[in-house]
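I hope you will forgive my troubling you with a question about protein structure. The record follows directly beneath this note:
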Amino acid sequence: MADQPKLFKVTIDNITVEVEAGTSILNAARMIGGDVAPPAMCYYSKLKGSGGKCRTCLVEVSAGSTADPRPMPKLVASCRTNVMDGMVVKNITSERVQDARKGVVELLLINHPLDCPICDQAGECHLQDLSYEHGAEGTRYEFPRRQFEKHNLGPYIQLHMTRCILCYRCVFTADQLTNKRVHGVLDRGDHAEIATYIEKALDNDFIGNVIDVCPVGALTDKTFRFKNRVWFLKPVDAHRNCPKCSGKVTLWHRGDEVFRVTGRKDQWGEVQDWICNDCRFEKKKTSDWVIDGPTKVSRHSVISANHYVDTVKPHEALPEVMGGRQPRLLMNIHSVSEVNKPTIDLSKIQGPAHSGDFKKGE
């Protein structure tokens, strides 16, 4: 009979849970769930070596263990600190933690541009959620923000270095999923940036996963660039028989068009299965996939707007009121506007849509 794993009791925000030895405070808090789990911008459970960069998961350890109940003098990164038997941790119940997290968010936003109105990550950006929950109303920073030369990473991935928070997730992803990593963090301090040093495209079969792991809008999908907002799209789970990956993805629909394909994510925003570039960038038709059903979306997310699962559609009384007559169409928008012509499919346009794309349909 196999030996039973050793369990430690840890108390986080007055809630006690038993976890296996070697579990980090962050993962123990995630077992409890809710607001007890600290936010994490750099830690990724599927990437070895991740964590310890962003400092957003800082917690207060008020008792180290049963054997040594002394508190730790400084706040610790919960993603890098393992639990001990009898440990007592404070997260949302600690004023020190809340004040420190507010300072960390202010630091992350110092050089971050106000790109939310045009950023493709808007609506699913972890930094947006973090700044809304823990950020200050204004900024005290009065100096010029960082500027970087633009780097071309190939036909599929768009880099906005001014939005990067240097979480290193994309570097670990390329290091552990691909045969050869060609990009990394260059320079040091406030000059540090994600780049390829020598202009080189990221063209590995699984390199598209850097888009999914990026917590901000620094790495985005060029094929989806400026085409739609995520809260206007309807995510559905789908799969296909793919020889390279699991083929389990999330399709983002608007009407009959598939605007983008991403990996399926869990409640912590982490990808469940890595997907290949063929599934992500080349299979943009509904007929390429077997639909499994609507994606479960957290109700606090803006993506959940008009996205209802397991609900009953209300009775439509308009046809009965009108006695079977169809409503009159008073104006057809396509007769007075050159934008969004019905002959043009935005999802099939290569790159961002421009006015010239609509004139081609004339």
